[in-house]
Inverse folding.
């Protein structure tokens, strides 16, 4: 007996991106090394930013995003944003263990950042 072809509007995933990325993936050691370097640089980043005003995109996330752009030869920041919206590996590398709401806020901010960079 043939089953119905019911299309689901949404799909929920209860597996974290951390568990979905294979343990032997080449980005894992790179991420670990970059995290250690960025942790050391964090106080220097803090000195460059004002204590007042609207929070910016964390420079660490911008740097991780640009690394992915280089590693995967993404041609433009707009294509990078597109990859960050649906590529689970990219999301894992840049937005580790973030709630969906903050991930979406990051992507919206990245869109604004690329628009501002493109306008220059």
């Amino acid at each position: 007996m043939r089953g119905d072809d019911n299309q689901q509007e949404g799909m929920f995933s209860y597996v974290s991106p951390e568990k979905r990325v294979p343990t032997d993936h080449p980005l894992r050691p790179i991420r670990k090394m970059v995290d250690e370097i960025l942790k050391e640089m964090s106080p220097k980043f803090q000195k460059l930013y004002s204590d007042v005003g609207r929070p910016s995109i964390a420079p660490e996330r911008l740097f991780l995003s640009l690394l992915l752009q280089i590693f995967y030869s993404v041609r433009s920041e707009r294509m990078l944003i597109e990859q960050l919206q649906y590529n689970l590996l990219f999301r894992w590398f840049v937005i580790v263990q973030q709630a969906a709401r903050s991930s979406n806020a990051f992507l919206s901010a990245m869109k604004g950042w690329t628009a501002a960079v493109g306008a220059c």
Remarks:
- Confidence is low (pLDDT under 50) at residues 97-101.
- Residues 8 and 17 are 22 Å apart (CA to CA).
- The longest helix spans residues 27-48.
